[in-house]
Amino acid sequence: MTGGVHLNRRLVLEEEVRQADGAGGYLGTWAALGTLWADIRARSGRDASGEDTSVSRTGFRVTVRAAPFGAPSRPSPGQRFRDGMRIFRIEAVAERDAQGRYLTCFCEEEVAL
Fold first, then answer.
1. For position 17, which CATH number holds?
2. Which of 5, 12, 37, 107 is most buried as measured by Cβ atoms within 10 A of its Cβ?
3. Is residue 61 part of a domain?
4. C-alpha to C-alpha distance for 69 and 86, rounded to whole angstroms
5. Within its chain, how far is the Cα of 109 from the centroid?
């Protein structure tokens, strides 16, 4: 990946918390784990049509400062970033550089059309 890292977007890292609903299932809510500064770059996008609605899906590379494995500030797949009303689902996480200074989170944002 070329170019510098510009950590100029403040994102909230969230994790799903499941609670029993009393009927054998669960209710999922999202809890904030902390705030991270990030560099967000768009990848590619596509439209997906369903029976009732159309959805626009766009991939993003979100770069954040690295954190050790197991640290609550280290993003992982299944979590998400929030930027106001925008939600970026984290699909995969990899080290961006050989020195381990940054992590690249491969995310997807869905917007109902």
1. 2.40.10.270
2. 107
3. yes
4. 26
5. 8
Q: Which domain holds residue 71?
A: 9-112
Give buried/exposed letters for 97-107 (b at 16+ CB in 10 A, else e). eeeeebbbbbb
Tally the domains of the chain.
1
CB-hemisphere CA count at 13 Å for 100? Answer: 4
Within a domain: 53: yes
User: What is the number of residues in the chain?
Assistant: 113
Question: Tens place of pLDDT for every residue, the chain, 113 residues?
Answer: 557 899 999 999 999 999 888 888 889 899 999 999 999 999 887 777 666 777 788 999 999 999 998 899 999 999 999 999 999 999 999 999 888 899 999 999 977 66
Work out the number of other CB atoms within 10 angstroms of the CB of residue 110: 12
Could you tell me if residue 2 is inside a domain? no
* pTM summary value: 0.84
